[in-house]
Design goal:
124 residues; mainly beta; 3% helix; globular
């Protein structure tokens, strides 16, 4: 079964950066969109950022201006650059694929091929 493979998580201090990567197969990398979600302990899964195959992007209000999502065509991967991290960014970060065109980029129920997640911990 197709799955995503996330990497790049870690433990950092407030204000430090991290770079996450999500590897996909070449076939599904060309799907309509890929996105990052996160889940903090005891909280629901939360949309973080999405990018379409035409490089249109969308961000949650809480990360806009600090995080950047980008496609790496050479690696068939989607990267998430996390800058100016805050303790509230702590959580497990997952990437997933949206196969077909949809106006609901922020709705996790539209996505398939979830990875195991990568942990991001930000301490103050």
């Amino acid at each position: 079964q197709e799955r995503r493979i996330e990497s790049g998580g870690g433990s950092v201090q407030t204000g430090e950066p991290l770079r996450l990567s999500c590897a996909a197969s070449e076939r599904t990398f060309r799907a309509y969109a890929m996105a990052w979600f996160r889940a903090a302990p005891g909280k629901d899964r939360e949309f973080v950022a999405a990018i379409t195959r035409t490089n249109n992007t969308e961000y949650s209000h809480s990360v806009r201006g600090r995080f950047t999502i980008a496609r790496d065509n050479a690696e068939s991967a989607v990267k998430l650059h996390l800058n100016n991290l805050k303790p509230e960014d702590t959580g497990t970060y997952y990437c997933a694929t949206l196969l077909n065109r949809s106006p609901y980029l922020t709705d996790y129920r539209q996505y398939v091929y979830w990875g195991q997640g990568t942990q991001v911990t930000v301490s103050s």
